[in-house]
Amino acid sequence: MKTFDARGSGKAFPFILYGVLTLAMLVVLIPLIYVVCISFATKQEILTRGFFLIPREWTINAYGYLFTNRNFLNAFNNALYITVVGTVINIVLTGLMAYGLSKSWLKGRKTINLLVLFTMLFGGGMIPTYLVVKELHLLNSYWSLFLTGAIAPFNLIVMRSFFQNIPIELEESARMDGCGEFRLLWKIILPLSLPVVATFVLFYAVNNWNTYFNAILYLNDTAKWPLQVFLRQMLIETDMGMESNSDGFEYSQAVKMAAVVITALPLSIVYPFLQKHFNQGMMLGSVKG
């Protein structure tokens, strides 16, 4: 009768694990390589060769076309503005509210926490939110994007839990030295909170950079559209065969891929600088509820 050899299965497990991870890496890496390489390919090669990873002839015509396209540059600048300003508003409001709710002496704290939790389970809906934005005269304004998503309930709860984990002795010592609440928050709490702050800066920045549906819903002026809405419009114009420059260079497959690369590039550059804080901040606020 054969018996199960645990030692043999234990030796095989790393090879199986590496095989699965390699397969997962290829699933992610091949489409990425395809997008980048097609953005440097010529239109003729894309039409004649079909699927390929390495172009025979490399060209930057697609990137040159985008960076001379006034609409693309305007949409890119709009996306940068929305991301920077929106993320600052998100972090400031989320941090202030989380800090206040972390204090046990705050009157009505439990009720406010329940209301925050309620918004995670139930939303007002698209039409009521649109009517509120309209009544506040925020349509066609970037404030319609900033204020409707100013505070994410989940981020607020995690940040509040992190503030609750900070030793109360630090705050008591600072208050004995005459430190007020805002100075306490700025000089002591925030320096200790860099991991969790960096984590949610990244979360909010990604969300603001990828703003799409709310921009279509609230912004009627095409000059205010962010980059994601421009990409959608570019796809529509490609399908209709509308957009081309004086040289007949259309929104070809190479141009679309170049736009995808440029869109993904800013966050890809920022992420390595926040990664060391991001990995630590993902766990810090989840210990104490």
UniProtKB/TrEMBL annotation:
<keyword id="KW-0812">Transmembrane</keyword>
<keyword id="KW-1133">Transmembrane helix</keyword>
<comment type="similarity">
    <text>Belongs to the binding-protein-dependent transport system permease family.</text>
</comment>
<feature type="transmembrane region" description="Helical">
    <location>
        <begin position="254"/>
        <end position="274"/>
    </location>
</feature>
<feature type="transmembrane region" description="Helical">
    <location>
        <begin position="79"/>
        <end position="100"/>
    </location>
</feature>
<keyword id="KW-0472">Membrane</keyword>
<dbReference type="GO" id="GO:0055085">
    <property type="term" value="P:transmembrane transport"/>
</dbReference>
<keyword id="KW-1003">Cell membrane</keyword>
<protein>
    <submittedName>
        <fullName>ABC transporter permease</fullName>
    </submittedName>
</protein>
<feature type="domain" description="ABC transmembrane type-1">
    <location>
        <begin position="76"/>
        <end position="270"/>
    </location>
</feature>
<feature type="transmembrane region" description="Helical">
    <location>
        <begin position="184"/>
        <end position="206"/>
    </location>
</feature>
<feature type="transmembrane region" description="Helical">
    <location>
        <begin position="143"/>
        <end position="163"/>
    </location>
</feature>
<dbReference type="Pfam" id="PF00528">
    <property type="entry name" value="BPD_transp_1"/>
</dbReference>
<dbReference type="GO" id="GO:0005886">
    <property type="term" value="C:plasma membrane"/>
</dbReference>
<feature type="transmembrane region" description="Helical">
    <location>
        <begin position="12"/>
        <end position="41"/>
    </location>
</feature>
<dbReference type="InterPro" id="IPR035906">
    <property type="entry name" value="MetI-like_sf"/>
</dbReference>
<feature type="transmembrane region" description="Helical">
    <location>
        <begin position="112"/>
        <end position="131"/>
    </location>
</feature>
<keyword id="KW-0813">Transport</keyword>
<dbReference type="InterPro" id="IPR000515">
    <property type="entry name" value="MetI-like"/>
</dbReference>
